[in-house]
Amino acid sequence: MRYWIFVCLWSLTRGLNQSCLNGEYLMNVVLLQDDVSPWSLNFVQPAVMKAIKFDAEINYSNDVTHNLSATYNGFQTVYYRHKGCSSSPCGGIEILKDLENSGMVGCALLGPSCTYATFQLVDIDVGLKLNIPIISAGSFGLSCDYKANLTRLLPPARKVSNFFIEFWNFSDNIKPLWHKTYIYKKNNNTEDCFWYMNALEVDSGSFASNVNKRVVLRKEEEFSAALKNDRESNLFILCGTPEDIMQLKNGSLDVDAHVAFILIDLYNDKYYLEPSNDAMKNVLVLTMPNNRNYTITTNNTMNDYIAAYHDAVLLFGQVMRQIWRIPVMDVDSVNINYFRNVSFKGIAGDYKLDEHGDRDVVFSVIYTNIHNEYKVLYEFDTSNNKTTLVDFNPSFIWPQQQLPKDQPPADNAGLQVKYAIVISLGFLALLVIATVAFLFYWQNRSYRRKQKRWSHIPVELITPVESSERNMVSLKIDEDAWKDTCQKIRRARYDKKIVILKELKHSDGYFSERQRIALNALLQIDYYNLIKFYGTVKFDHEVLGVFEYGERGSLRYVLNDRISYPEETFMDWEFKISVMYDIAKGMSYLHSSNIEVHGHLKSTNCVTDNRMVVKITGFGFNTFISPDRDLWTAPEHLRKAGISQKGDVYSFAIIAQEIMLRKCTFYTKACSDKAEKLDCVQYPRMLCFFRPDLIFETASEKELEVYLLIKSCWDEDPDKRPDFKKIESTLGKIVSLHNQANESYMGNLIRRLQMYSRNLEHLVEERTALYKAERDRADNLNFMLLPGPVVRSLKETGSVEPELFDEVTIYFSDIVGFTTLCHYSTPMEVVDMLNDIYKNFDSILDHHDVYKVETIGDAYMVVSGLPRRNGDRHVMDICHMALDILSFMGTFELRHLPGLPVWIRIGVHSGPCAAGVVGLKMPRYCLFGDTVNTASRMESTGLPLKIHVSQSTINIIERADCKFEYMKRGETYLKGKGKETTYWLTGVTGQNYNLPTPPTAENFQRLQQDLAEMIKSCLEQRSPSHEKRKTLSAGQRKLRGHSELTDNEQPEYFHLATVDNLSTYL
Fold it and tell me: 597: helix, coil or strand?
């Protein structure tokens, strides 16, 4: 293993001398990829991408033409016995070797966070000479100290060790000098706690040489004994969370005022956000300062590791801007000195890196006061190793307002207690055994509790799939059989995937402890040849399991379907062996997992996906269903009910015989009755064991080898049957797949399958093409005219029930001076003008949750909040849409009158309304109520190029805490409503909509003259054919004599009212 690492490192360093600036990516993110580690690539990648985008904005503002780029590479330890960082030494090396082979090493490496993985990249003794900076949020261990090209953005173990050295030697009127301590190191520490405690524990460390005595405790019973018996110190150092303190105190809130726990919990912000409890009153917490610009979440969407990698991008961007300013960028790599003695800002606060590239911080030492509040007692600056008192008058539980001394006071009564203990030793022996057993149980409670918890998938995440959506690949025409199958199979859509729902019979959803443990183990199974289990869901009174869906059905169905899968051209020798090989691989993985045994293996429990890969299902439910008694059951389990791995091997042999002969299950010429077959297997006659037929006489050499394997698998003696590892190896050698372990069949078989599928599917498509086309056209037209729920209701029942909506927002707009524009335009020009405007309006609507009600002439009506209710979002969607439309009108230009501005008025109002379909002919979805009338009044009383908003809409905006900007217009007279306070919507905070400037009374005289000249010029440039056009109405033709423009006379289109109520006359 170590020799292989040396070879990887030597080959990797050969190609790292090229200029990194010439690559496609400047950064490579190399992290552990799982769903557990807080620095997993799954959690870090979105933050890195966000930081790259933010850095690009900085570059743009500084006229830097280059931008950062990154590639993301995750390594997994799922196949190792020990998961996580302990199995990650070679993961980063393998990824860097692949990057080097592809020329994508880049200028910097973000990650790894695991100390074991980072050490292999930065330690010169193992042979790696990596000449690019490595920026890590982690790599805490002492073995990664003082490395030439390593920068650590989270405090390493050396900084924590320096704190304890200085803090132990520090004294004032609150804290005495300390020389002794206990160090409690759990077995299941997190990555940071492991290395922080390791720095304090190791004999060669600085802390060990600076304290007089330290006692390392590794078990909970040792910790409890140190608390109860004669203590050597009153101080206990441990790393973890307040929950660990509660656990060590066995859930008790009682505190010993003579003891002090020093808890290392750097990456937790609850000490600044949440109250404390009584159990923490004798605890000092060492944690990071309160300068985060984010809140740590429990689902790992944001934590200190993610923030550090986000800020690592900002640091690297700052360095690259310095490099890009160099006139000639003739450099092979980024100099590591850029990352030494440097400061920068990030979302985690101000960063300060020392001469070794490690982050300096100001630690906070926090205590719990008598009111159960967390307070900062001391601060420790790692840059100068200085301790500062913050709270000069603390109110804590320790007597005389002083921290306890490290040495317990002498107690002569303790000798008497010792004698009493010796006398009672016989009685306490049983108590000690019970305590040890209890502590062992308590130590593993977290894992046990997790295994014993189970929650159903929320029902709203499961969408049943209609029967019309079935996509089972088969050309076998058998409607009755298909209908029967559809009744048995229930399919749904979950997480954008088609899944199958299977009923868990005899279960009410409240599973027993054994069942919950089995379901949690089943949930962890994820393998290529095993059907994925997603969880359970409770529908009404049914409990259903949610499984991955096999598109082509069960293996038994495929074997029976000789039309879709003919023997001569499709189901040939290679395909049959590949099917058996798929089953063997799946069972080999299953037997080595926590499931250990299938117990119900049969051809109906083997399904095929759309690529003809066979996957096994039906495993993991042995606590729900009793053992089978069928043709696949091993003889020993027919005689005595049960399950075993050797019984699975027997079931595999029966399936293999089905595949090879493509006959019915357990085919034999001598017997066809199922009951008789079971009886012959269970009770053999003399020494002749009853098995299915295998034709050895006519078998070829390669078939004979498979037949012998099948025969050994159904041997009467279970001990003589091979295990699935050997079966997998044998089948792999037969089809020469030992070098292609990730493939299930030969490449030529794939091509043959594709050709065959295309030919057969073409026949089906021909017969259904016309029907689908007509159906799609009708559906698309219906959905363009009416909302989806209304269309479905009309199709199903022929009617739509009217519905009352408590709160919607309605938008009205019309074109100012539309009549005058029509007077100077032909009918076709008017149609083209409206089409140009409304097509762009419609495209804007696609980006918002709104419904277009109708257009009448130049009026445009939109509503949000119906037919699908969306809470308070209807106001936000309408306001954003109105701003987008107004921004578009600022750039719109008429095709037949270029240069002439087009103004619109917009009115918005919120309130209740009713909606329904009116009429039988040409049904339309209409809105009714005073809200519609008020929204129309808001539009008619508005001003050009402004958004007129009512008081009710503003109330919802304030209630939803939206960032819209608006200004008060004052009281406006609304017909039928009286005077009401209205507002102008002007934009959104932080966004630039580039809205057009509305005309005002001050500059209107000059605007009148300029626009008058524009329309005169536009009309003069029109061709003679347009001068004798047909106008829109007879009344307008009478106005032809008044259509000539003069300097003192403008058309109605440009008449702006100058009274207080600048309302409508444009």
Answer: coil
